[in-house]
Each structure stands twice: as C-alpha cells, then as structure tokens.
Amino acid sequence: MRGKRPRNKAGVSIAVILLFAAFGVFSMFYWGPPNQGFIEKQEEFRQTPDAAAKKRVEAENSEAAKIALLYVSAVQTAVCTRAIDLTWWMQERLQFAAENSPDGVSAVRQELCDGITKRVRGGNQLRSEGVEDQYVFTPMAKVEVAALEPGRQDLSKASMGRVWLEVSYPVPTQALEDDNGTPIKSLRVGVSMSNDGYVLKAGAIGNLEIDFDSISYNW
C-alpha cells in the first residue's frame, strides 16, 4: 500500500504570506494607508482656520465695519462734524432746518455737536432705553469689531449690516455704568449701517443697540 505524500508545509506558508502581502498592497491602493484618515484630518485642521476667527476677520474687513469705526473715532475724539456727517437722523434734521429755516441751520448743527461732545454727570448710566453714544465710546475705551450680521430692515433706511463692537474700559472711573452706578468692564454694542454709508438710529436713546447679556463686571 502506497503511503500518503507528505504536504509541503514550507510551500503552504509561503503561499499564505504572499496572499496576505497581495491583500495589503491592494488595501493600500484601494483604501490608503491605515493612518491615511488621521493624516488627512491633521492636514485639514492645519489648512482650515478657526471658523469664529475667520468670521471676525471678514467682519473687520467689511465696509460696514470701516464706517462704524470711523463713527466711533469721531465720537471718541469729539470731532462732531464728522460724527454728524455720518449719522442719518442728524442729516435729516439739518435738511429739515435748511428747507424750513435756513438761518437756523448753524444753530441746529451746534446743538447736535453739543449733544455729541458734552458729557454730564450721571449721563453715563446705562438704562433699559439705552444711553447716548459718547458715554459708550469714551476717549479711553478700547473698541474692536466682534461680528457682522445682516442689517435690520425696520429702521429709517435699508441697512447693509449690523456691526457688533466689543467695548472695554481700562479703569472703572472711565467706564460706562449700569443704572445702579456700578462700573461696567465690557459689553457689546451694535451699530446699524445704511446701504449708503450712514449710521442709523437703533436705540430709544442713542444710536446703539445694547447687548445686555454681554455686560461684564470682571475687573
């Protein structure tokens, strides 16, 4: 009786190794290396800027923000002629005076200028109706663009956008106060800009919208 032919174990092992090697090569081409997804995620993270930072940069470079900051600068430095030229309701007031009492235009302009530059005791207290802009944009206040939103359409003119500004104060004695007289460290205010580049009145008092939830007292 003829015995069974012994199996070539070495040949089987080589075949198995070759099979796994071929599968590995196929996997590399089809799915990519095992860590390919991780590498791609790392590359994506490096190339994609933070979304909030990107939006902030876009807001800072917007036309609405540039005009808003011009207005802020005019109020902070008490250049009332520039502030008046940038504010729509003030332009309407001057136009009405020119049409109805031309001799009174200069008096109206001076009244508007006084309203921008004068700061009276107790006037810097923020109330539910708002506050005059000069008490928010004090000379020492730090003002930065925080965000840009679509403009409100319930104002006196169509709006190109609403610019949210982060306002902070260096010392309590130079700060806006709440209605209890407590100095505010920082807050956000909104400036609405018309399509033709004017600051629109968006508060019962002053031109600004106040984000009351943003108020911080952390000195």
How would you describe what is shown here?
This protein is an alpha+beta fold and 219 residues long. It has one domain (63-216). Helices cover 43% and strands 17% of the residues. A hairpin with a 4-residue loop joins β3 and β4 (199-200). The protein starts with 8 loop residues before the first helix and ends with a strand. Strands 1, 2, 3, 4 and 5 form a five-stranded antiparallel β-sheet that branches. Residues 26-31 have low confidence and may be disordered. It has helices spanning 9-30, 36-47, 51-60, 63-76, 80-86, 88-100, 105-117, 133-136, and strands spanning 142-149, 159-168, 186-194, 199-200, 209-216.
End-to-end distance, in Å?
102 Å
Range of strand content: 15-25%
What is the chains' assembly state? single chain
Query: What is the C-alpha radius of gyration, as a whole number of Å?
Result: 33 Å
Q: Structural class of the helices, strands and pairings?
A: alpha+beta
Average pLDDT level: 84
